[in-house]
């Protein structure tokens, strides 16, 4: 969980290269982590193209996903 949090912190601070590297490390350990894969793809895109207003929508989606707890 710490790597995920580190990746998200970098993502929200618009350090997309750092976020991508952190999430790649996490996915190497858990390739079935779909939320991390989603944020990795977004971080890679934003690193190349810029974030614009899309980052706010991504933050809202993450908050929604984190609140979801099937257990």
Notes on the protein architecture:
- The chain is mainly α and 71 residues long.
- The protein has helices at 2-12, 16-29, 34-49, 54-67.
- Helix 2 runs antiparallel to helix 3.
- The longest helix is centred in the middle third of the chain and has 16 residues, at 34-49.
- The model has no long low-confidence stretch (mean pLDDT 86).
Features:
single chain; mainly alpha; 4 helices; globular; 71 residues
Series of secondary-structure elements, N-terminal to C-terminal: HHHH
Number of helices: 4
Total number of strands? 0
Output the structural class. Answer: mainly alpha
Uncertain stretches of 5 or more adjacent residues: none
The biggest beta sheet, please?
none
Shape estimate = globular
Gyration radius, in Å: 12 Å
What is the chains' assembly state?
A: single chain
């Amino acid at each position: 969980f710490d790597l995920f949090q580190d990746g998200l912190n970098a993502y929200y601070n618009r350090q997309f290269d750092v976020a991508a590297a952190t999430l790649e490390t996490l996915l190497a350990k858990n390739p079935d982590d779909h939320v991390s894969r989603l944020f990795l793809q977004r971080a890679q895109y934003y690193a190349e193209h810029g974030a614009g207003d899309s980052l706010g929508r991504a933050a809202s989606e993450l908050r929604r996903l984190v609140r979801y707890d099937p257990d």
